[in-house]
Automatic annotation (TrEMBL):
Pfam families: UbiA. It is a multi-pass membrane protein. It comes from Zeaxanthinibacter enoshimensis. The chain crosses the membrane at residues 20-38, 44-66, 87-107, 113-129, 164-182, 194-213, 219-237, 249-269, 275-295. This is 4-hydroxybenzoate polyprenyltransferase. Keywords: Cell membrane, Membrane, Transferase, Transmembrane, Transmembrane helix. One of its GO terms (molecular function) is transferase activity, transferring alkyl or aryl (other than methyl) groups. It is found in: Membrane.
Amino acid sequence: MRAVLIGYARLMRPANLPTAAADILAGLAISGALFTAGSFNQELLPQVLLLVVSTVLLYAGGVVLNDVFDLETDLVERPERPIPSGLIPRSAAAIFGGSLLIGGILASYLANPVSGLVALALAVAILSYDGFSKKYAFLGPLNMGICRGLNLLLGISVAGVFNELWYCIIPILYIFAITLISRGEVHGNNKGHILWAAVLYAIVLLCVIYVVTVYAQDIGLGLIFSLLFAFLIYRPLFRAYKENSAGNIKKAVMAGVISLIVLDASLAIGFAPLWYAILILLLWPLAILLSKIFAVT
């Protein structure tokens, strides 16, 4: 029984779940509804908690169903995973993943109907990636990026309205880059993808610096967050390009995924007090700790 429970936990990629929560917290800050005249709007706390629960359920459901769809591939490339190893039946994993998605949609709807619609759109995008688009070189990364963009939008929708929608482009570009890098995770030899990812990373970084310099109360602190983000994503990327092995590529992907938290904190500091950005940043060591126990990809 213990092995089965651990198997279900492995399917949900626990190390990645804090990154989904960070998206919501960043979206809340961008919305402008969470902080009014510099003060925290405590009336929104129930909605905040519901949206965090929602995103965790949606993300977990998405990665579980991804493994359900990938069974044939994983039997060859990743036979140690819970489903191809026989630890978790495919049908049971499908029910589990579907239930998580439904729970995520319901939690968002309880926050407010607009958030419920965003969560429904996110669930459709997740299923589209899992079951169809990931097979395609361009459509797959784009679809994955859209999932993250919708996740940020889920946080922005906390007050039932959409403000500053252009910010959703940032996670779309960022996740597009990470998904490109991941194309060499098994066999290596993806220097072309890494170069394109480096360009997309640069665009994302410029967007973050723009937000910090235009909106942050303390530009210096905001730039420190931005520099930390740049260091965390580019260092493993350069190593993966220099030595284009599957192991280094996997490390670059893992660093990119976990550094989403630093990206979200860097965006949040433009719209929220320093303590709030630090609160988001505290999810980063949690994700790193979980990544030592559970696989990120």
